[in-house]
Amino acid sequence: MPTKLLIHAWRVEKKGNAYYLPFSHWLYLQEIVQYYDEVVLIAGCRHLAADASTEDLPITGLGNIQVHELPMGSGSYLSSVRYFPAFVQAYRQIKGVTTYYSRYPTPFGWLQKCFAGKAQRIIHYVGDPVDVALNNPNFSPLKKRLLVSAFAIENQLYLWACKGAQVYTNGHHLAERLARKGITATALISSTLTAGDFYYAEKNIHPETAKFIYLGYLRTAKGVETVLRAFARYNQDYPQSSFTIIGSGEFEHELKNLVADAQINNVHFLGKIEDRAQINQALRSADVFLFASLSEGSPRVVLEAMANGLAVISTPVGSLPKCFSADSDIVFANFNDPEDFYNKMRALTENNQGYNALRSAAYVKVQDATIAQFIKRIFHR
């Protein structure tokens, strides 16, 4: 019997007749198509002008892939509500699906339960917007309550849809939270690592010239302000040290203002980089990866840093405490605590032997955390 997978997870860009996905999603799709005869994407679509440039990758040639276009709002859950009838219509129109796959918190992914019948269903929890809202220090108590209340119905509908579905989570903490609600879920370590992403070179770190780096979205919940303030302290002690920030997002302007107002030296904003070779080169040129996120599933960027031979200082977010040992293959620092990050940065860079032992142990531990194994656990039957 032919197999047909419906994916309700991502947004796409379209230029001419070609559809494009960001690199990480493109990698996922490249692996997923190996397991099905046909794949259909239900996706919000942003149309590009013929002469527009994009850093995303075309899905043409990956396999038998169809895209069912949906209107796309600003990207937030609330902006998608008005398009709910289009989501329902899409599920009604797409026939012959043997497996449904939805990624929480993608809006209305719970619709699979309404239309799947006896088909296989997969729900994949990749984050927790409620946790993000509650732990964001820049949100007032009122705003937190409003955001959580606005998402409450959607959250309950996903829990309802989990009944009878195979449920996976990015990280053990999400699986544990679902277990408290009577949902059995399999915890996974999300990864986009391929063989070419692994690199380890001998190096000695010097605190005077230490190179720190961050890779990811520039959002309040990512804690970049925390590590910037920590680096400001460190750079006062060691003026030749540097901090490279790769990524973009709605908080980018505020972060640049912070750097200017606080007169923090040697901070370099490189913007969004999609080319994997460029990202790997930037990581390999650095010494320490800083990550102060407030809420995650299993943060892929930490694995990417470790695979490229970096030492990591991070908040104990998501699956990290379950997967890595404090002070053996990762250094944990407190949430929203620039002072603790600063102290950990000093301690790590001023101990060359400990620095190399930490990054070596981390490099060994991530050897099996590849995208092929991650996708296989979800889709292989």
From TrEMBL:
EC number(s) recorded for this UniProt protein: 2.4.-.-
Q: Which Pfam families match?
A: Glycos_transf_1 (PF00534)
What's the domain of life for this entry? Bacteria
Q: What are the residue boundaries of the Glycosyl transferase family domain, all occurrences included?
A: 202-363
Alphabetized UniProt keyword annotations: Glycosyltransferase, Transferase
Q: Which SUPFAM superfamilies match?
A: UDP-Glycosyltransferase/glycogen phosphorylase
Name it. Glycosyltransferase family 4 protein
